[in-house]
TrEMBL record:
<comment type="similarity">
    <text>Belongs to the class-I pyridoxal-phosphate-dependent aminotransferase family.</text>
</comment>
<dbReference type="Pfam" id="PF00155">
    <property type="entry name" value="Aminotran_1_2"/>
</dbReference>
<feature type="domain" description="Aminotransferase class I/classII large">
    <location>
        <begin position="56"/>
        <end position="343"/>
    </location>
</feature>
<protein>
    <recommendedName>
        <fullName>Aminotransferase</fullName>
        <ecNumber>2.6.1.-</ecNumber>
    </recommendedName>
</protein>
<dbReference type="InterPro" id="IPR015424">
    <property type="entry name" value="PyrdxlP-dep_Trfase"/>
</dbReference>
<dbReference type="InterPro" id="IPR015421">
    <property type="entry name" value="PyrdxlP-dep_Trfase_major"/>
</dbReference>
<dbReference type="InterPro" id="IPR015422">
    <property type="entry name" value="PyrdxlP-dep_Trfase_small"/>
</dbReference>
<keyword id="KW-0032">Aminotransferase</keyword>
<dbReference type="InterPro" id="IPR004839">
    <property type="entry name" value="Aminotransferase_I/II_large"/>
</dbReference>
<dbReference type="GO" id="GO:0008483">
    <property type="term" value="F:transaminase activity"/>
</dbReference>
<dbReference type="InterPro" id="IPR004838">
    <property type="entry name" value="NHTrfase_class1_PyrdxlP-BS"/>
</dbReference>
<dbReference type="GO" id="GO:0030170">
    <property type="term" value="F:pyridoxal phosphate binding"/>
</dbReference>
<keyword id="KW-0808">Transferase</keyword>
Length: 362
């Protein structure tokens, strides 16, 4: 049992650190250690005092309490701190997916959301993104497990408040487990904190992190939210994987979550400015056909004119301008590009200027 290659990773490895304008990644452009500590209200001296033992297996109580506070009615006992959202998803699927389980999710999708279940023998029921954000679409979808990535990567689409309420009512009636992957929850359109579907009492589990939204992906901290028994089993599974998250990452994560209200609005403003700018100029980009601005998160989905191979487009754009985007083929859907909106604004403006001027790209 082995998952297929993770399609986005090869290109990310090649270009994310040397692209002039990195629109390929789904995270905010990274902060330095110094900047991150300042956001977290910490100093180098604070870090130097951290005892370098194994952090508690489930995650420190204070960090779990702070994470639990992000969800209505969730207690620290219902939180497992993990090495990134990736580990939380991996463990959750190991415990939830059986051979021949039917797993429904919005398509296209972040590959880990279906590749690991497939490896475990699941049958995948893809729900095309164009209709997936209407609750009624899910009425006729009968699955053993639902995976709701919201805001959605790669389309940036979200459920409107009414559709969201109807979706939750519908999912309650189905009485099947749901995994809400809410990695981009800190960046809803209009600011504040995005909605959550997580409710462990009704089998509505959650995975999340702040690392992409806060520009600190290198910290590798994420979490799983579930009922206490499930968390106990998940912790035992984690004991065989990464065992614990390092105490430095945990301490910085705690500081960032506690201080988030002081810096998140400026991040949200930057992302929205980039989205607004892109929305005003996308029609001037060569060989593109349609774009709908994301309603949450950090990424959007740009449709190319028919017949263009997304990989050819992405390769030439990178070669000619240093602008790095991900081809739709990496999401197993030809004819699209995934665009990230987390770059610094001046770099983003210059990148789009170069892209626009490439009139003979194809
Ligand atoms: C929807 C989604 N879920 C999970 C992950 C994995 O996140 P992490 O880097 O925290 O492991 C990503 C990363 O891009 C993602 O986009």
């Amino acid at each position: 049992m082995e998952p297929r290659e993770f399609f986005i990773e090869d290109r990310l490895e090649r270009f994310r650190l040397n692209a002039f304008c990195n629109l390929g990644e789904s995270g905010l452009s990274h902060f330095t250690m110094e900047e991150m500590l300042s956001l977290a209200g910490l100093t180098g001296k604070d870090l130097s005092k951290i005892p370098m033992y194994d952090a508690p297996n489930q995650g420190s109580y204070e960090l779990r309490q702070t994470i639990a506070n992000l969800y209505p009615g969730v207690s620290p006992e219902e939180v497992l701190v993990t090495t990134g959202t990736g580990e939380a998803l991996y463990i959750a699927f190991q415990l939830l997916v059986k051979p021949q389980s039917k797993l429904a999710l919005v398509w296209p999708a972040f590959q880990a959301l279906y590749e690991i279940p497939k490896m475990l023998g699941a049958e995948i029921l893809p729900v095309p993104y164009a209709n997936a954000f209407a609750a009624s679409t899910w009425e006729g979808v009968d699955a053993d497990l639902y995976v709701l990535n919201h805001p959605h990567n790669p389309s940036g689409m979200t459920f409107s408040p009414n559709e969201w309420d109807s979706l939750l009512t519908l999912l309650h009636q189905k009485e099947k487990p749901v995994v809400f992957d809410e990695h981009y929850r800190f960046l809803p359109k209009g600011g504040g904190m995005g909605k959550t579907g997580v409710d462990p009492k009704h089998l509505f589990y959650g995975t999340g992190s702040f690392t992409k939204c806060f520009g600190v992906t290198g910290l590798r901290v994420g979490w799983l939210i579930a009922d206490k028994d499930f968390i106990k089993r998940a912790r035992s599974f984690k004991d065989y994987l990464t065992h614990t998250v390092n105490p430095i990452s945990e301490r910085i994560a705690l500081g960032l979550l506690k201080e988030k209200d002081s810096f998140l609005p400026s991040i949200q403003k930057r992302v929205q400015n980039n989205i607004d700018h892109f929305t005003s100029v996308w029609r001037e980009l060569p060989n593109v056909e349609f774009f709908s601005p994301p309603e949450g998160g950090l990424v959007g989905w740009l449709r190319l004119q028919p017949g263009i191979r997304s990989e050819d487009y992405a390769d030439r754009l990178m070669e000619r301008t240093g602008v790095f985007v991900l081809p739709g083929s990496n999401f197993e859907m030809e004819g699209f590009l995934r665009i990230g909106f987390g770059a610094k604004e001046d770099v983003f403006l210059e990148g789009l200027k170069r892209w626009k001027s490439c009139t003979d790209l194809i």
